[in-house]
Amino acid sequence: MQQSTRLLRCIRTLLALRFNHYNSTFTMSAKYAFSKSLREVRFLFCQTSEQSAAVRSFLTRSYPTMKRNNPNIPILIREAAGTQPKVFTRYDRGVEKSQILEGLSDKEIEETVTGLVKSDQ
Question: Is 89 found in the same domain as 60?
Fold first, then answer.
């Protein structure tokens, strides 16, 4: 009897640990989950200009996480000399939104992009 009680306690502990791990993984993934209607994210910027430095920093830091959590959504990066930093999002039925990123900090760019990718249009 005592052995079965110990076994039950052990199983409960393992299930609780598993559930907590699942919840923390889900929360982390949900933070970077894109809207279901989003079809594409496109970044345009200059590879050398100072105006695009924050965009380059943001993409270096955030691209791997965004792509890992949204593997089926194309995240396009377009570099061209002298281009104003901008982000475009394309949704169902060809609806597009864009936002100029010039003059924004890394954190402000993250907030702007998050607003666009979580939007339903």
Answer: yes
Task: Judge residue 13's burial from the number of C-beta atoms within 10 Å of its C-beta, 0-12 exposed, 13-18 middle, 19 or more buried.
Answer: exposed
* pLDDT tens track for 51-108: 999 999 999 999 999 999 999 999 999 999 999 999 999 999 999 999 999 999 999 9
42 and 88 share one domain? yes
Decide if 81 contacts 46 (C-beta within 8 A).
yes
Provide the number of structural domains found in the chain: 2
Cα 26 to Cα 41: distance, rounded to the nearest angstrom? 23
CB atoms within 10 A of CB 114: 14
Same domain, 43 and 98: yes
pLDDT grade for 40, boundaries at 50, 70 and 90: very high
Q: Compute φ and ψ for 99, nearest 5 degrees.
A: -145, 130
Predicted pLDDT at 120: 80
| 3-state SS class at 62 | helix
